[in-house]
């Protein structure tokens, strides 16, 4: 049996879970998240915990069992604590600034790149404009928006300039060795 799937999800104080068949709504201090799951997987609320079970042991149901439980746990964590993803800008003259709610990136193009956050996402900037934090309660959306910001100018392998996740290791290449003169 799935080790992840059979673990019950504790529901903290201040979080309401509404299960209607395969449609689940989780609401808490930071907001509400809703999601539809596969109807084969059974989701129930027992003793203040969310329990996920599967009908058979076939491959498809085993795969959906752990996935459903993980997605539900992410929803509960999202409405209580929220998620964030940190990015850092490296390169001479590269910086970011806020224009209203939008993030404006100056990363070596002839024009600034403006990124509008989708609903439920906020951007935070460190004082020098070199560290960007993407915050929200939907883990999937936070990761997608952070990847979209990184895609504007991914780190290049020769000098390491660009936008990268905090703690991301960028392998450097040697570059050209040069031409041998004489001989």
Précis, in short:
This protein has 183 residues and is α+β, with helices and mostly antiparallel strands.
Model description:
The strands form four sheets. Strands 11-12-7-13 form a four-stranded antiparallel sheet, covered by helices on one side. With 183 residues, it is α+β, with helices and mostly antiparallel strands. A hairpin with a 6-residue loop joins β9 (102-106) and β10 (113-115). The chain is 20% helix and 36% strand. The chain has helices spanning 59-80, 139-152, and strands spanning 9-10, 16-20, 23-28, 31-36, 42-46, 49-53, 83-90, 95-99, 102-106, 113-115, 121-125, 131-136, 162-165. It has two domains: 9-80, Ribosomal protein L6 (Outer Surface Protein A, domain 3); 83-165, Outer Surface Protein A, domain 3 (Alpha-Beta Complex). The model has no long low-confidence stretch (mean pLDDT 92). 20% of the residues are buried.
Topology:
Layout: E1 9-10, E2 16-20, E3 23-28, E4 31-36, E5 42-46, E6 49-53, H1 59-80, E7 83-90, E8 95-99, E9 102-106, E10 113-115, E11 121-125, E12 131-136, H2 139-152, E13 162-165
Antiparallel strand pairs: 1-6, 2-3, 3-4, 5-6, 7-12, 7-13, 8-9, 9-10, 11-12
Query: So, CATH architecture of the largest domain?
Result: Alpha-Beta Complex
Compute the number of strand runs: 13
In the CATH scheme, what's the topology name of the largest domain?
Answer: Outer Surface Protein A, domain 3
H/E series, N to C? EEEEEEHEEEEEEHE
* Alpha-beta classification: alpha+beta
Enumerate the spans where pLDDT stays under 50 for 5 or more consecutive residues.
none
As a whole number of angstroms, the C-alpha radius of gyration is 22 Å
How many helix segments? 2
Strand order of the largest sheet: 11-12-7-13
Sheet with most strands:
4 strands, antiparallel
The general outline is elongated
Q: Which homologous superfamily in CATH is the superfamily of the largest domain?
A: Ribosomal protein L6
- Supply the CATH class of the largest domain: Alpha Beta
Integer count of domains = 2
User: What is the helix fraction of residues, given as a range?
Assistant: 10-25%
What is the first-to-last residue Cα distance?
71 Å
Percent of sequence in beta strands: 35-45%
- Averaging pLDDT over every residue, what do you get? 92
């Amino acid at each position: 049996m799935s080790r992840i799937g059979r673990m019950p999800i504790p529901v903290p104080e201040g979080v309401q879970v509404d299960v209607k068949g395969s449609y689940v709504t989780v609401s808490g201090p930071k907001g509400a998240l809703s999601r539809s799951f596969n109807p084969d997987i059974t989701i129930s609320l027992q003793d203040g915990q969310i329990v996920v079970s599967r009908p058979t042991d076939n491959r498809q149901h085993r795969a959906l069992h752990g996935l459903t439980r993980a997605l539900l746990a992410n929803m509960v964590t999202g409405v209580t604590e929220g998620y964030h993803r940190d990015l850092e800008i490296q390169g001479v003259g590269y910086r970011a600034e806020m224009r209203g709610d939008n993030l404006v990136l100056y990363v070596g193009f002839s024009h600034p790149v403006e990124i509008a956050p989708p609903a439920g996402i906020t951007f935070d900037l460190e004082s020098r404009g070199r560290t960007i934090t993407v915050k929200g309660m939907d883990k999937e959306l936070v990761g997608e928006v952070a990847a979209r910001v990184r895609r504007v100018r991914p780190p290049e392998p020769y000098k390491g300039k660009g936008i990268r996740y905090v703690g991301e290791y960028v392998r450097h290449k040697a570059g050209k060795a040069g031409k041998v003169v004489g001989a």
